[in-house]
């Protein structure tokens, strides 16, 4: 007498295509998630990988004068700010914060509204933009770092004297 149960080899053959379908779906899903994650990582780096230079470094480093996007830090030169009529186009100069490159100034142009602390003599200004052959920094964005230490009124009057 032959057993009543089905032959196990036939059951395994019938179940195999269903397992393969689940495996294929899992592999496709894993590939999509991996690609999405890879793209997000790739997209996050260009903004953080900008060159960051001081005014003196930018002027002396001629290999970055090719119009690439970079960041430059410095202090606003007193009385250098000018605005074109009643527009949002402004021209100004920056100098090194620590005075390493005395006498070297960076001329810059910006179109837009300036941050509130832009004119604070103790603030560090960070420009993001490009420096071309015309030797004027075309600013796309301005960041102003608040001073980390505040000088007393007596120290400020001594420095300005």
List descriptors:
elongated; single chain; 2 domains; OB fold (Dihydrolipoamide Acetyltransferase, E2P); alpha+beta
Brief rundown of the structure:
By secondary structure, this protein is α+β, with helices and mostly antiparallel strands. The chain is built from 3 helices and 7 strands; from the N terminus they run αβαββββββα.
Domain count, please report it: 2
User: Could you name the CATH topology of the largest domain?
Assistant: OB fold (Dihydrolipoamide Acetyltransferase, E2P)
Helix content class: 25-40%
Share in β-strands: 25-35%
Poorly predicted ranges: none
CATH superfamily of the largest domain: Nucleic acid-binding proteins
Q: How would a crystallographer describe the biggest sheet?
A: 5 strands, mixed, barrel
User: How widely separated are the two ends?
Assistant: 116 Å
